[in-house]
Amino acid sequence: MYSQISLHMNKRERVRFQVNLKCRLQRPGTEDIEGETLNMSRSGALIKLTDTSRNGNADCLPNTGEALKLVVPLPVHSFFGPRCIWGEAIAVRRCNSGGECTLALRFEQVEIRRVEDSTASAISAPVM
After folding, report:
1. Are 89 and 106 in contact (CB under 8 A)?
2. How many Å apart are CA 22 and CA 74, to the nearest integer?
3. pLDDT tens, 41-52?
4. Cα 65 to chain centroid, rounded
5. What residues make up the domain containing 56?
6. In this structure, is residue 6 part of a structural domain?
7. Is the CB of residue 102 less than 8 Å from the CB of residue 47?
8. Could you tell me which residue, 126 or 103, shows the higher pLDDT?
9. What own/partner pairs with CB < 8 Å and gap ≥ 24 does 29-36 have?
10. Residue 125 — φ and ψ, nearest 5°?
């Protein structure tokens, strides 16, 4: 028999996979926020924000409930060319701890997009 606690421990809808890729979060009217994916599923992602200058300033960070766009450049494959994961997401949790910030996202829409040659260098530029 399952205890009440075990029934409520895992509320995730999908299996998450550890995926460590550079990414950018886009917010209307602000500069892009740089980060790295920690894990992803079909329904969401956990992102560690790597732009440390913003991590100390809560006003620069996305709030819970805020709509964002996520761009994750994928490793280039000779057959497919440059692609990225593009998605519209809602921030569902933000955790600031020890000068680091993680952001949990729920995808509203996600797709794999072809990156045009003119934007490939900008989107795959190293994130510092």
Report:
1. yes
2. 9
3. 999 999 999 875
4. 15
5. 14-117
6. no
7. yes
8. 103
9. 30/60, 33/60, 33/61, 33/62, 34/127, 34/128, 35/103, 35/127, 36/127
10. -60, 145
pLDDT tens digits, 64-120? 999 999 999 999 888 888 999 999 999 999 998 877 899 999 999 999 999 875 444
The pLDDT of residue 122 is 43
Q: How far is CA 106 from the centre of its chain?
A: 9
Non-local (6+) Cβ contacts of 6 within 8 A are none
Count of structural domains within the chain: 1
pLDDT: is 123 or 94 the higher one?
94
Please report whether residue 123 resides in a domain: no
- 3-state DSSP call for residue 54? helix
Q: Is residue 34 part of a domain?
A: yes
Q: Residue 57: give its domain's CATH number.
A: 2.40.10.220
Rounded-to-integer distance, Cα 37 and Cα 20, Å: 5
CA atoms within 13 A on the CB side of 71: 20
Report d(CA 19, CA 40) in Å as an integer.
Answer: 6
Q: Is residue 88 part of a domain?
A: yes
